[in-house]
């Protein structure tokens, strides 16, 4: 009787982990609104509009409060749990940034 209880408990734990998952979402799996929000905050943008550009990638534009417009390219790497983006402003600002999720 006792071994049967342990088997059921182990099976229930496995099913729970399979459905719920064991770790929180990381940048490698963020959806479009979360990616836009993160980049807008980091770049201090008043506007951002991205669209899918292949698997785990986005392209689009953003605008800073002082008026500079940016072209933005975003790549997510689920294996390395990272989010990176490159940007180029219409006033000459360029950048390449990366965010790595740490558990």
Short précis:
By secondary structure, the protein is an alpha+beta fold.
Structure commentary:
β1 and β2 (57-64) form a beta hairpin. The chain starts with a helix and ends with a strand. The chain has helices spanning 2-20, 32-43; strands spanning 45-52, 57-64, 69-77, 82-89, 94-100. It has 103 residues and is of the alpha+beta class. Helix content is 30%, strand content 39%. It is built from two helices and five strands; from the N terminus they run ααβββββ. It has a five-stranded antiparallel sheet with strand order 1-2-3-4-5, with helices on one face.
**Portion of residues within helices:** 25-40%
* Structure annotation, total helices: 2
**H/E series, N to C?**
HHEEEEE
**Major pleated sheet:** 5 strands, antiparallel
The overall average pLDDT, rounded, is 83
Total beta-strand segments:
5
| Alpha carbon gyration radius | 20 Å
What order do the strands of the largest sheet run in, or round the barrel if closed?
A: 1-2-3-4-5
Q: What form results from the Cα inertia axes?
A: elongated
As residue ranges, the low-confidence spans are 15-20
Which helices and strands occur, and which strands form pairs?
Elements: H1 2-20, H2 32-43, E1 45-52, E2 57-64, E3 69-77, E4 82-89, E5 94-100
Antiparallel strand pairs: 1-2, 2-3, 3-4, 4-5
Descriptive terms for the model:
103 residues; five-stranded antiparallel beta sheet; elongated; 2 helices; 30% helix; alpha+beta
């Amino acid at each position: 009787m006792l071994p049967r209880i342990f088997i059921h408990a182990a099976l229930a734990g496995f099913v729970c982990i399979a459905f719920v998952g064991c770790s929180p979402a990381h940048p490698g799996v963020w959806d479009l609104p979360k990616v836009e929000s993160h980049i807008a905050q980091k770049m201090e943008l008043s506007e951002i509009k991205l669209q899918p550009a292949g698997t785990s990638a986005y392209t689009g534009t953003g605008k800073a409060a002082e008026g500079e417009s940016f072209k933005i390219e975003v790549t997510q790497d689920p294996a390395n749990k990272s989010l990176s983006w490159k940007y180029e402003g219409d006033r000459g600002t360029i950048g390449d940034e990366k965010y790595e999720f740490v558990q």
